[in-house]
Amino acid sequence: MKRIGLDLRCLLSIGCFILILSFMGGCATFRGKPPEVEKPKPEVSKVETPPLQQVFPNFIAVVAREGDTFSSLASKYLKDPSMDWFIAEFNEMETLTPGQPLIIPLKPYQRGGLTSKGYQTVAVLSYHHFSLDRTERLTVTKSTFEEQMKFLKDRGYRVITLGQFFDFLEFKGQIPKKSVVISIDDGWRSNYDIAYPILKKYGFPATLFVYTDLIVGSEKTLTWDLIQEMANNGMDIQCHTKTHRNLTKMEQKESFKEYFEAIEKELLVCRTMVKKKLNIDVKYLAYPYGDTNPLVNELLKKQGYQGAFTIKRGSNPFFIHNYRVNRSMIYGDFDLNQFERNVTVFTEESLK
Q1: CB under 8 Å to 246, separation ≥6 — which residues?
Q2: Torsion angles phi and psi, residue 18, rounded to 5
């Protein structure tokens, strides 16, 4: 029985093998149209698209895309859309179009505004009173102030903060080529009623130098609440002393000791009051009448002030003395040509 079982298995295996061979033979003798063999396609050389961004240690090379602006690029690469000027000035461009290659600098490239042709200067403008229609030496009308601010905007000036200005003086940072600082002295009500809304309209920062004895909330003066409102909306608040006395002159029958103590009090009380009322750490002072001397300068340093302003007319290079910064008073009878002469931004002087 075992023998018969093995023979059957062998016959089955042989039969299967013969069937497979027959099938293969049939396939081999098939007379139909042979299948088409796909011919290899000729290789097409690929044109490499240049990358839209290439990163280097101090800059990024990019190609502008649809919808890009200097502000959007500054926001993306510098984390600050207001640094649009930083990119535009480096590339010497005023407009941006898709496909345009440009460089995004990652570090300041022109500290101090120095070039082979000269150096950058910054005007610090000084205002006092404002009125609807009355013009006096220290009073600028609403329409005139509006016209001056529009002039700055239309001509491409950039109004910067005191912090940015002193970074420029100390060689810490770079500022726009056409930079200007706006300051207002004392603390009159017209600063809030007239100047403040116009500054907000144009998006300009400004500094209010207050002498604290004036802030009594009368019909003509500011209140601390109004100053707080302005501070909350971009107005920088700094000191103009306590009483607005001339810091360089001894009063009649005042001993040197009394004078010294009085000047210390003028500087300290103003700084302390601003901190108490507004929780602002004062860093800068505008000298009453624009006057100072070496003693006042040293007392300022002792009390933590980082800079101070005169009323000497002229723009400021980075090498101006930090405690003798120029400011140009803007008078009520200035026309636009006179105003423009006070916002010079460059001094030509060959440095070769």
Answers
A1: 288, 289, 291
A2: -65, -40
Closest CA to 235 of 345, 127, 79: 127
Question: 227: phi > 0 → left, psi -120 to 50 → alpha, else beta; which?
Answer: alpha
SS3 state at 46: coil
Hey, is 78 helix, strand or coil? helix
Q: CB burial class (10 A; 0-12, 13-18, 19+) of residue 189?
A: middle
Structure token pair of residue 173: 């940072």
User: Measuring CA to CA, how many Å separate 11 from each of 16, 21, 22, 208?
Assistant: 9, 15, 16, 113
- Ordered strands of the 118-120 beta sheet: 114-115, 118-120, 346-348
User: What fold, for 53-107?
Assistant: Membrane-bound Lytic Murein Transglycosylase D; Chain A (3.10.350)
Within 13 Å and on the Cβ side, how many CA atoms surround 93?
17
Domain boundaries, the chain: 53-107, 112-348
- Given a contact cutoff of 8 angstroms between Cβ atoms, the answer to whether 180 and 159 are in contact is yes
Rounded Cα distance between 8 and 69, Å, is 88
The 10s digit of each residue's pLDDT in 293-330 is 999 999 999 999 999 999 999 999 999 999 999 999 99
pTM, entire model: 0.83
Mapped to the 3 state alphabet, what secondary structure does 178-247 carry? CEEEEEEEECEHHHHHHHHHHHHHHCCCEEEEECHHHCCCCCCECCHHHHHHHHHCCEEEEECCCCCCCC
Structure tokens at 292: 């100072």
Task: Read off the tokens for 107.
Answer: 């570090």
The CATH-assigned architecture of domain 112-348 is Alpha-Beta Barrel (3.20)
User: Cα separation of 91 and 86, whole Å?
Assistant: 9
Length of the chain: 352
Query: Contact 185/209 with Cβ under 8 angstroms?
Result: yes
Percent of the chain with pLDDT over 90: 79
